[in-house]
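Following up on my earlier message about calcium ion. Here are the inputs again, as you asked, copied directly from the submission form:
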Amino acid sequence: MSIWRASRAGDRYTESQWARYPGNPGKEPRSGPVVRILVVEDETALAAQLESALRAAGYAVDRAASGDRADYLARTEDYDAVLLDLGLPRVDGLTLLRQWRDSGMAVPVMVLTARGSWSEKVLGIDSGADDYVAKPFRIEEVLARTRALIRRAHGHAAPELRCGRVTLDPRLAVVTLDGTPVTLTGHEYRTLSYLMHQLGRVVSRTELTEHIYAQNFERDSNTVEVFVARLRRKLGASTIETVRGLGYRMSPPSPAKGHPA
Ligand code: CA
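Thanks, got it. Here's what our run produced:
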C-alpha cells in the first residue's frame, strides 16, 4: 500500500538488517516495504509475545530490555513506531520519551501503561506519547493500535477507500476509476463516499439522504436516485447495486467465489 512507499521508497537493507527481516526467504530481498518496530519492554515473556505477534503481522521487530539500549537503537536505527514500557532498568520510559521529543525525534510512540493508572496515561501523553495501551492487553488491541499509529504518522488518518475499479481518497476528495480521476459534484461525492464507507451494507434512501444534506432544507429522497444514476453513468452501471425495497449497496468484488452460472 502506498502508505509505506512514502517512507520506504529506495530503502536498502544491510545484510544484518535483512537477516532479521521476518519475511526473509533466504534469497533476494523482497522489493516490498518493511515496517520496523522497536519493542521496549523488560519483562522477557511479554516482550517475546509482542515480538512474535508483530512479526506474524509482517513487521520487522527489534527489542530492547532497558532504557539505555532503547535510546541507542532509537537514535541509530529508523523505526516506524516504538512500543514503550515505562518501568525500565537504567532509564525509565517517560524520561526516555521526553529526551526523544526534546531532541526532535518524531517517531510514533505507543506507551504500555499499567491498567487503571490514569496518571501514567496523562504523564505519557504529556511527555509526547501518541497513544497508550493498558496492561494486561489483548494482543489484537496492540496490533490494531499499532496499525492506526503508523497510518496516522504517514498522514493517512483517513485511508483511501477502494471498491473494485473505484477509489476514493477522503483527504483529497478525489475519486478515480481505474486510476483516472473522475469529476463529481458535491452531492455525488457525498453519496459515493457514504456508500463506500458502508461497503457491503445496504443503505436505505432515507439514511443516504440524511448524510448527503448537511441542512434540513432541500432534503428529498428522490434526488438520491438522481445522484446514484449519475454515479453509475460516471463509474459503471454495476458500481452501485439497487436492493429492491431496501436501498443501495456497494460491495467489494469477490474474486475467490467464482461466478454463478
Ligand atoms: Ca517494566
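One observation from looking it over: Residues 35 and 179 are 26 Å apart (CA to CA). Hope that helps, and feel free to reply on this thread.
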